[in-house]
C-alpha cells in the first residue's frame, strides 16, 4: 500500500482529466440502474446513500488501521457543507423529475458550466476566456439538443423547472466544495463525511414524506448497491481525487456528456431507442468539451490549477 499510493497520486497529477472522464463514465451508469429499479427516486437514493456510507466507512476503517491521520474538526466543516449541498441536490433532482419532465431537468442541467463558473470566479479566481466559452457553448448547445431529442412533448411545470434549476445550483456548490475540500481533507474521509450528511438529509425527507423505504426487494437492493459502489464510491473517488490539479470550469463541461453516455448504455443494456439526433447532439457535446480542454484558455486554466496545487504543497 505504501508503494502503490505515491504512484497513484503521481498518475492523478499527470493525467487528472482522464480520471475526471472515468468519473463521468461511471456517473452515467447511475440513471440506467435507477431506471431498471422499481423504487421511487427518493427511496432509491436513501438506499444508495446508506449503502455508500457502509462501503466508505469500511474503507475509512482500513485506512485508519494503516495509520491515516484523522482530520481536524475545522477540516470536517467543508465536508459537512458539501454533504448538505449534495443531499439537497439529490432531493431536488428526484423531485423535479417527478413534477416536470426529464427534458426540462436536462435542459436546466445544461446551465451547469455557467453556474459553476460564477462560483469558481469567487472561490478560485478562475476567469475563462472567450475561446473557452465558444467551445463550452458548443457543448451546452449539444446538451440542450440531447434533451430535446429525448422529448416526449409533454408540457413542463414551472415549479418543477424551478427545482431543476435549484438542483443545478446545489450540485455546483457540491462540486466547488469538493475541490475546496481537497485542500483540507484526504479524499476518502471527505467523501465519507459528505455522504453521511447527505444520507441524513435524504432520510429526513423520506421520513417526513412517509415513503416506504423498507418495502424493497433484493433486485432493487442490488441495483442500489451497484450505484453506491460504481458512481457513488469509485465514481466520486476518481472525480474528486484529481480536483486539486484541474480547474473548476472544465469538469462541468465534460459532465454534459453524461446523458449521452447514459443513453448509449440504456440502448445497449435496456434496448432503448437511440436516434441519429442523440448521436449528433452527443457528438457536439464531445467536440465542445474537447475544445474547452485543448483551447488556449483551457490550457491556461489547467496551468493555473497546477500552480495553485504546487503552492499548497
Strands, helices and their partners?
Layout: H1 4-14, H2 16-27, H3 29-36, H4 41-65, H5 73-99, H6 102-109, H7 112-124, H8 130-149, H9 158-181, H10 187-209, H11 218-240, H12 250-254, H13 258-270, H14 276-294, H15 296-311
Low-confidence runs (pLDDT<50, min 5 residues)? Answer: none
Broad structural category: mainly alpha
Cα radius of gyration in angstroms: 19 Å
Strand tally, please? 0
Largest sheet: none
Mean pLDDT figure: 82
Q: Categorize the overall geometry.
A: globular
Spell out the helices and strands N to C. HHHHHHHHHHHHHHH
Strand fraction equals under 5%
What percent of the residues sit in helical stretches (DSSP H or I)? over 70%
Report on this structure:
With 313 residues, the chain is mostly helical. 79% of the residues lie in helices and 0% in strands. The chain has helices spanning 4-14, 16-27, 29-36, 41-65, 73-99, 102-109, 112-124, 130-149, 158-181, 187-209, 218-240, 250-254, 258-270, 276-294, 296-311. α2 runs antiparallel to α11 (218-240). The model has no long low-confidence stretch (mean pLDDT 82).
